[in-house]
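in:
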């Protein structure tokens, strides 16, 4: 009996502590959709939360306020987070069908074995471009430009430990 009462008291104290901590980090905010005042945690306010609930947020994100309103034009070109100044679309473009075909051909040629350490269990193999993808456009899908490496060896090839730049050709 004593231990059960102790557990109930401890649980009540824990709930009170959680509630007090939650109230300490909250602020009153007006919902942009329904206008209702609500108590919101400061972390949400810092992240730009403007609604009292997910329901209000979903209702507000319709029509001209939708994230993709206007066909997403506001996310194209320099406004896109993936935009790289000075890089042409051709350099950034990857034809996934051709890349996947190339990758499978490289794996098959190398019998699904890492050519550096001999790992042959699969699932963590990478098809590595020996001549850089960005510099050698004409060699992107050439079988001779690929080599099968396991994940660890691929990280080593691109890492600081690869002093001799093995499996990497940077310039023409």
């Amino acid at each position: 009996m004593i231990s059960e009462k102790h557990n109930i008291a401890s649980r009540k104290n824990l709930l009170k502590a959680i509630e007090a901590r939650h109230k300490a980090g909250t602020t009153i905010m007006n919902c942009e959709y329904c206008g209702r005042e609500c108590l919101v945690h400061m972390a949400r306010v810092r992240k730009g939360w403007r609604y009292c609930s997910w329901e209000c947020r979903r209702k507000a994100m319709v029509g001209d306020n939708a994230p993709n309103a206007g066909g997403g034009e506001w996310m194209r070109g320099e406004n896109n987070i993936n935009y790289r100044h000075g890089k042409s679309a051709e350099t950034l473009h990857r034809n996934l069908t051709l890349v996947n075909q190339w990758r499978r051909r490289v794996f098959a040629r190398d019998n699904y074995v890492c050519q550096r350490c001999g790992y042959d269990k699969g699932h963590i193999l990478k098809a590595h471009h020996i001549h850089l993808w960005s510099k050698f456009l004409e060699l992107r899908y050439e079988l001779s430009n690929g080599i099968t490496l396991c994940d660890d060896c691929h990280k080593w090839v691109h890492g600081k430990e690869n002093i001799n730049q093995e499996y990497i050709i940077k310039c023409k």
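note: The chain has two domains: 2-79, 89-158.
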